[in-house]
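Title: Prediction job returns without error message
Component: structure pipeline
Severity: low
Priority: P3
Assignee: unassigned

Description:
Job completed but the reporter wants confirmation the result is attached to the right record. Sequence as submitted:
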Amino acid sequence: MKTKKETNLNFGVNYEWSPDKKYILAYNFATGFYGITIGDRFGNIVFTLKRKLPGFPSHLVEKTKANWSRDGKKLTLIIKKENEEKLEILVFDAKKNFKIISKKDLEHE
């Protein structure tokens, strides 16, 4: 009887596959850090963005949210800005090693 090799993905929590199933994204909320990790289906980490938690409680850390484009070529991330109490939107190009192609402050009330 043949058994299928299973890959143990330990990237973070709340896993989300890209639409093309090439990448899997996980959120990181570990001691002292928050952000995302992206891996491939073989268990290799291909990109990580982690930021140090601020020295004060911030509800903005909990608003970290990522969305894949329909074709899986781009990833949009809403994340708390470093050293500021505001959110920013980062857009990454998955085809170019998750290079940031757009960065903008998110205005909120």
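Comment from assignee: result matches the submitted record. Residues 13-106 form one domain.
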